[in-house]
Amino acid sequence: MKVVIIGSGYVGLPTSVGLAELGHHVVCVDRESSKIEILRQHISTIYEDGLEELLRKNVDAGRLSFSTTHEVISEAEVVIIAVGTPPHPVTKEADLKYIHAAAIEIARELKGYTVVAIKSTVPVGTGDSVEYLMKKTNPSAQFHLISLPEFLREGFAVHDFFNPDRIVIGANEEEPKKIINTLYAKLLSRTKVLQVNRRSAELIKYASNAFLAVKIHFINEIADLCAKVSGDINDVATGMGLDSRIGQKFLNPGPGYGGSCFPKDTEALAYMARHNQVELSLVESTIAGNSKRKRKIAAQLISSVSDVPDPKIGVLGLAFKNGTDDCRSSPAVEIIEELLNNDIEIIAYDPLAMSNARCIFGERIKYADGMHDVAEGADLLVVLTECNEFKFLDFEKIIPIIRRQQIVDCRNIVDMDKAAKLGFKTMKIGLNF
Ligand code: UDX
After folding, report:
1. Is the dihedral of CA 28, 32, 33, 36 positive or negative?
2. Is 262 in the pocket of ligand 1 (CB under 6 A)?
3. What is the DSSP letter of 86?
4. What three-state secondary structure class fits 129?
5. At the N or C end, where does the chain have fewer CB atoms within 10 A?
6. What is the spatial distance between Cα 47 and Cα 157, in angstroms, rounded to a whole number?
7. Atom 32 of ligand 1 has which residue's CA nearest to it?
8. Catalytic residue (choose from 28, 226, 261, 410)
9. Over the range 230-267, which residues count as b (16 or more CB within 10 Å of their CB) and which as e?
10. Residue 216: which of 407, 429, 1, 12 has the closest Cα?
């Protein structure tokens, strides 16, 4: 099939590459010519495990190309909108200006029947307003506008594209459902397809992300209680997760959820509910609690070094989670800002996110060359991101260079028994921190 994807970001690019790998002819369109130039040199503009290899393979095979113009749309059987929906700075509702701009461009170019799918996360009812806008722009255009929400995780985008838990098709008509089933035909043997109306599909995406955010916030609060009553959150989470109704996933306590989706989508869902006079009390308190959590953790870290003159903290992890270079709404970034406001010197390391972190902090923090180097002259080490590499910290390498042997693990991934045996003061979230 001939497919055009509008947007080359964390959703658009992996989807373009994935659909090309399934055998379709895909053109990925982005109005930022600098990005398209890079992509045309077979270089991925985002870090995703395995993405660049597949990109190169499919460009070489002639199935994938990149463009800055929308003219290619006239050839397409399916056009997928995967542009950003950033939060409004005050109300936090999803800003649809990029969706609307894309819809107008698409409507102008359509020739013959086309399925237009919104993959971006959009508020319920967006499909209706976009359909109206497209019909107004080009009254003779023949198209069906559907919702095709995306559930892939950053850092695992390639894996998730080929192994989705489900494909949700939100369409009010039969014809586009058949076409989307053909588009994903090669994946249908290993996933479930749920066909629902357009508004339900739009809500499934928000409700799923909000539910996962609530789950994380819940376990974070239980972790705080564990620390007070001498429980161990890891054991509690394991015990809860063994109940198949609860499940083990998303019960890892930490410094709060971050990233480009959960913070934005929970806010947008809460806005939508308020707008419709519906109370979403769990989502509202999750948003407030998650925001408070980062300040609380920063305050605990500050008090751990409050007796030291010119304190210095070594930070392990800057991205919002493991496997990505993305620092957007990263708890690590917010915590570091609080530490800097309290005149604490920071030296930090992240296996993937150093260059993005430099754009945020510039010269305000120091950057270590490797994970052990963050210990140089530090009064405390803190793990803020669950990077796999940190599981292999060698404490014997750290002892000669650290000023005070203290470590806080906000992700509970470090072997603290080993550290304790070597004389470190160890603090784990949901145990003694
Ligand atoms: C999320 C959804 O998982 C995905 O389906 C959707 O398409 C986009 O939003 P992503 O933002 O990539 O994906 O990250 P995810 O792996 O879900 O983690 C989000 C945040 O929650 C991270 O900050 C992570 O560290 C945190 N988290 C996750 C926890 O603190 N504990 C957990 O148990 C799981």
Report:
1. negative
2. yes
3. P
4. helix
5. N
6. 10
7. 250
8. 261
9. eebbbebbeebeeeeeeeeebbbbbbbbbbbbbbbbbb
10. 429
pTM score = 0.95
Cβ atoms of residues 76 and 3 within 8 Å = yes
Helix (H, G, I), strand (E, B) or coil at 42: coil
* 3-24 residues labelled b (16+ CB within 10 A) or e (exposed): bbbbbbbbbbbbbbbbbbbbeb
Q: Are 225 and 231 in contact (CB under 8 A)?
A: yes
Q: Which two tokens stand for residue 360?
A: 């945020």
How many angstroms is it from 230 CA to the middle of ligand 1? Answer: 28
Q: And the tokens for 105?
A: 């461009």
* Predicted confidence (pLDDT) per residue in 221-266, tens digit: 999 999 999 999 999 999 999 999 999 999 999 999 999 999 999 9
Name residue, tokens 């934005």.
264
How far is residue 355's CA from residue 368's CA, in Å, rounded to a whole number? 12
Which residues are within 8 A (CB) of 118 and not within 5 positions of it... i.e. 6 or more apart?
A: 81, 99, 126, 127, 130, 145, 146, 147, 148
| 261 part of the active site | yes
